[in-house]
Amino acid sequence: MHAQAARRALADAGLDRSRVDGLASAGLGTLAPVEIAEYLGLRPSWVDSTSVGGATWEVMAAHAADAIAQGRAEAVLLVYGSTARADLKAGRRTANLSFGTRGPLQFEVPYGHTLIAKYAMAARRHMHQYGTTLEQLAQVAVQARANAAANPQALYREPITVDDVLSGPVIADPFTKLHCCIRSDGGCAVLLVAEELVTDLATDPVWILGSGTAVSHTTMSEWEDFTVSPAAVSGPTAFARAGVTPQDIDLAQIYDAFTYMTLVTLEDLGFCAKGEGGAFVEDGRLLRDGALPVNTDGGGLSACHPGMRGLFLLVEAVRQLRGEAGEGRQVRRRDGTLPELAVASGTGGWFCSSGTVVLGRG
Fold it and tell me: pLDDT of 189-207, one tens digit each?
């Protein structure tokens, strides 16, 4: 999957692999970028193996853009692949993801506090503090599924209702099954190049205008506020560096392993005030033709979630900005023109890390 995605990205760009001198990868084997480079037949002089969960790829994109700007590399390939679903079906892994029992986690593991329980606890706190309702959280899943309906590559495309979400089996209170991301296989790749190479490429470029990164906590006891994610730092930083505001953004791709992640990240990026996320996601606002299209491919809740999904956010943002999303799926501005600005914001761990990238067309 890594190789297939890499070949397709290079073919899309029209760049020979001999020009690739940078590689970023994580999540496979012991020495991820070394193993992937060997498999792809590459010998990069710049590598990145940053691993901060789902935010990894936005952080890597920021690192790569900085390296290119400093002349350390001219063509950096970000590549990811995972057979999470196939491995589960074949019995090569279990359904539960364990981060081990050593280090700071030793103080939580004995109590059975799983990854999903951490997100569920945070969601429950938001509900208690701001009056956010289960119906509002369910709206995130419903609209993600509606966006997935037009995506032929989405794993689940059948419409769902708020009642469907609420009536499902409870996974970790208050989350039912449809509040949680799907499990899938998948791979993708993104190529970042120096400006000097743009004229040699086969496709129009999408520019990284600004980025921001942040980390928060590992143990829940060190998380100062369950209703604030590290996107509250990475988002404003990315917007400031890009010279834009959230109000300028045409579409957003947000990490959505759980419905609460979408809601709280929208708040922290500045699309609405803290505590107003519940009302913000109502009335179809997140749909492809809504006021702020979010996760236009269906997101991790419906399209795909092989593991560290952050790279898929960048891929979907680029497709939409280029006008390549396809019939019935392409986002357009109110005047019918293609979107100009997008934001991709990844989250890692249980709001442990965040990477936000602002992208622009032309």
Answer: 999 999 999 998 999 999 9
The DSSP 8-state label assigned to residue 325 in this structure reads S
The string of DSSP codes covering 101-134 is SSGGGGGTGGGT--HHHHHHHHHHHHHHHH---H
* Span 134-166, pLDDT tens digits: 999 999 999 999 999 999 999 999 999 999 999
Entry pTM:
0.96
Judging by DSSP bridges, how do beta strands 251-254 and 341-348 pair with one another?
Answer: parallel
- pLDDT value at position 85? 87
Do residues 122 and 175 touch, judged by C-beta distance below 8 A? no
* Four-residue CA torsion sign, 31, 32, 33, 35: positive
Give the Cα-Cα-Cα angle 174, 96, 123 (nearest 5 degrees).
Answer: 20
Residue partners of 86: CB distance under 8 A and separation at least 6: 185
For residue 206, which amino acid is it? V
Q: How far is Cα 121 from Cα 184, in angstroms, rounded to an integer?
A: 25
Pairing of strands 22-24, 75-82: parallel
